[in-house]
Amino acid sequence: MTKDIGFVTAKETAWCPGCGNFGILRALSRALEELELRPQDVLYVSGIGQAGKTPHYIAGNVLNTLHGRTLPTATGAKLANGDLTVFAIGGDGDGYAEGGNHFLHAIRKNVDITYLVHDNQVFGLTKGQASPRSDQGMVTGTTPAGVANEAFNPLATAITLNGGFVARSYAGDQQHLTRTIKAAVQHRGFALVDILQPCVTFNKINTYQYYRERVYDLDQDGSYDRTDRKAAWEKSWEWGDRIPIGILYQVERPTLADQYSGILTTPLVRQERDTAVVHALVESFKV
To answer: Where are the extended beta strands (E) located within 141-242?
Structure first.
């Protein structure tokens, strides 16, 4: 169950009681309210998974796509109508496994969308298998002897590719997550927000208590320089006894839309349609 909070529309969800997704849903709703956005001006694009159900519970336009294909779909939507505030939403399995290749190229192209990754270190929808974010040694249904490989580091990857906005937040800290989502939306270009999201059913390691004892805000004393790429990359590897949350790295870069001045000036949805071109193409296929 969930309460009426701003953009939140659902009375019931498919999530387990205590799931970190509830915190993300509420923080997203508060961020949209504080940004004074209208539901009709927001598009949520999601793949498959528990995280991918988020758009079903919040007001706005929704486009569900295939597992791991959230980012290319969101890219197309943004290029077709640049006036939309576009969110790509998925889990760490959806986004960093099946969608890993798209993740790399969305950063490289610097598409002006906000990517919210519900990072619970497992595949939550399909009963808790290991994901690319599972820590080495973690025992799951698919890794009874423990995960053999080092966990994928999305923050270090994004910083290496000079991602314009690279941040981490925590589902258990509503104020921090709301503030981070707002900053991501206001950033011009691709914005990654990797959200530590406890899975109370399948991940008994990375719990609320685990994070409460470890997370700390990079902006707490105001001394962190988010424009220092080398320092940000080094900070992205800090994991264990202390886990940093906040905007690790931020830089201004030309966006994908900047390469297409016609789209930037007039979104495709508002441009005149030249049906003659279509008719000519159809005629060319006639025998």
So the answer is: 165-170, 191-196, 215-217
